[in-house]
Amino acid sequence: MKRLPIRARLTLAFAAAIGAVLAGGGFLLYHHLADSLDRTLDQSLRARSADVAAIVRQGDPGLREAPPAPVADATGSFAQVLDSHGTIRDQSPGLRQQPLLTGPLLRRAQAKSLLIARAHRLGGDVRLLAIPLQPRNQKLVLVVGAPLRSRDQTLANLRSELLVGGPAALLLASLIGYLVAGAALRPVERMRTRAAAITEQHLSERLPVPSANDEIARLGATLNQMLARVERAVKRERSFVADASHELRAPLALVRTEVDLALDLPRSAEELQAALPSIGEEADRLSQLADDLLLLARLDEGEVPLRKEPLEVRDLLHDVAERFRRRADDDGRTIDVDAPRLAV
User: Fold this and answer.
1) In what order do the strands lie in the sheet with 140-147?
2) DSSP letters for 200-218
């Protein structure tokens, strides 16, 4: 299975990271807003309970005479006073004749303050705060509450906006990431195009390196250094082939000359036998030359350590003169070597 292109993988990674950030941010925002709304409701309930508790302690039946605040009102709060048996002693106008707390909840509220985050009362979800009161040696429980409709609606609106805006933001961020990845990889594409156009006839060309000192620029510089090494190696190879051709041409020409002379002119067996040593010498020369060329090739590859030794120039010139002396004699010429003994 083929892997996705780098640009696609970068885009997917970027989209995954942005998606995680958006999801985490939305989660934190949602819960932060929920906590903020809950704290606001709790503060409102505590303030309401303090006001109602003051009325109850004074024995003022102000709850029933207060203006109606129906539960259906999204911002309205309500209150109810219960005795230890759960009997309604007082309550806000508009409430049903049904105690807000009964059984274990009522007994817990008689001992200490009790906050009920969500309860289904009066036909809807409400938040309740119950505190114990003892006015004139009476054991009462004050219950204040507020509907959760406004809170829940606010959170529902935020949830809808996050579900719609989150994917849209993720899509936009992914598109931007795709474009940014393409711009970042554009120098690589230019280098690839130039590399595809470089042939053995144009080894002097180099890849375009961006001006920024980043990973792509260092990659381009490294590839250009490699191309320079390849160019030098090819030049050495071509020079080696040219030198080998030049070195092989002379002994082959001598062998060819000896053979032509032996075939073209009528010669005795003694003369033909005398020509064979010269051909043998040139054959040995070719064999030695082939070994030398192989040695040079191995030296270029670094397989053989190079060891330098002094060479007598006079001896080298005498060897060359001996190779061509027979041909010179046939042409009526002489070869003399006049060189000092000099080691190089």
Assistant:
1) 88-91, 78-83, 140-147, 124-133, 114-121
2) TT-TT------SS-SHHHH
Token pair 């009522």: residue = 106
Q: At what angle do helices 269-300 and 313-330 cross, to 10 degrees?
A: 140
CA nearest neighbour of 87 among 35, 147, 140, 41: 140
CB 122 within 8 A of CB 148: no
- For residues 150 and 261, membership in a common domain is answered with no
The pTM of the full predicted model, rounded to 2 decimals, is: 0.61
Question: 283, 255 in Cβ contact below 8 A?
Answer: yes
Spatial contact of 90 and 56, defined as CB atoms under 8 Å apart: yes
Q: Clarify whether residues 111 and 11 are in a common domain.
A: yes
Domain at 266, CATH number: 1.10.287.130
DSSP 92-125: -TT--SS-S--HHHHHHHHHS-EEEEEEEETTEE
Domain count, the chain: 3
The 10s digit of each residue's pLDDT in 98-139 is 899 988 999 999 889 999 999 998 888 999 999 999 887 788
